[in-house]
Amino acid sequence: MNSLKTITYLLFAFIIVLGFYNCSSSKNNTLNFKTLNGIEEVYYTSWAAGVKGGGSGINVFINVNSAFPKGIEFDSIYFRGKSVKLQTKPNDKELYIGYFKTNANTAGNELLLDQETVKEEKESPKIPFNLKNNECVVSYIQDGKRMYYKITDIEEKETTPYPSTPQ
């Protein structure tokens, strides 16, 4: 009788542990590989300020058209190991831009920038996706749920020189 009670307790504990395991695995980020209608063009450009130490970066552009579903709200973009919020310009709500700063063209501020980079890397969460250099993942909200859409084969367009940091 005592061994039957022990087996029952062990079985019950096993079921509880299995339940917690399944709950934690359901939090994995799943990617939506279906096509989002209305995405017209996705590309990126590198930029460098025209002044020494003025900074540099990569801007990722996602151009949508009128076929883009109304219930979808783009949030963030994951690209080359980093994540930023997507932004639009006040005069062009169909163009989403992710602004990624890089460490190139930082002459004269190397020590300060290196310290800031280390601090940012420690504070920024690791991105949960394995991506190639020409791939990104867009985080968006649809019907109150966070979804992820992977975009592959992003085209690199010509580098843009700027006289100062772009806004």
UniProtKB/TrEMBL annotation:
Top-level taxon of origin: Bacteria
Record flagged with keyword Transmembrane: yes
Protein name: Lipoprotein
Record field: transmembrane: 6-24
Entry keywords, A to Z: Membrane, Transmembrane, Transmembrane helix
